[in-house]
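Ticket #4471: structure output looks truncated?

Reporter: J.K.
Steps to reproduce: submitted the chain below (169 residues) through the standard prediction queue, then opened the result file.
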Amino acid sequence: MFLSALPLAVLCQTLAGNGGETAIHFSFALGSGLICSAIPDFRTPIWATWLGRLSIGLLAVIFALQGISELARNELLTRVAFQGLGQQLEGWLLVGFLLWCVMALVFDGHGRTRFLGLLAVSLAGAVRAYAFVLPLIGQSLEVTAPVLKLFYLLPFVWLLAESRRSISR
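Returned output as attached by the reporter:
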């Protein structure tokens, strides 16, 4: 779902002239929900499992609220979904999810998929760290380099590869 969000957004934008961001938010909400249900399938410590489920589950709720606010065009809901929940909380929840990814790599990673995961999680973590540093100098990732947010999708490429490995076991 995460990896199909961008093509789906382009398709919505092309066919309807709008709705690209809404499609992205609903795709991310559904993808987050699906990953939340799959996290227990990985052999991680129980605290990491709960951290991963809580982080990605709350991200699913935030993404869904953001999608709903775009459809409803309600100013209060938009402010809550984007400024209240979407600014700081979303970033910290991503950190929680990335920490779970590290634990999944350590406790359940194997072979080439482990290397792919290490690369994917490292790059996403580096972008997240950069996003945390930017406000200290009065800037944001949204303004400075929004394209770097695409690196946040890399752990999902790794999880897709992991799921294929799990099927072939």
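Triage note (M.O.): checked the attachment and the full token line is present. The chain has a mean pLDDT of 88.
Status: closed, working as intended.
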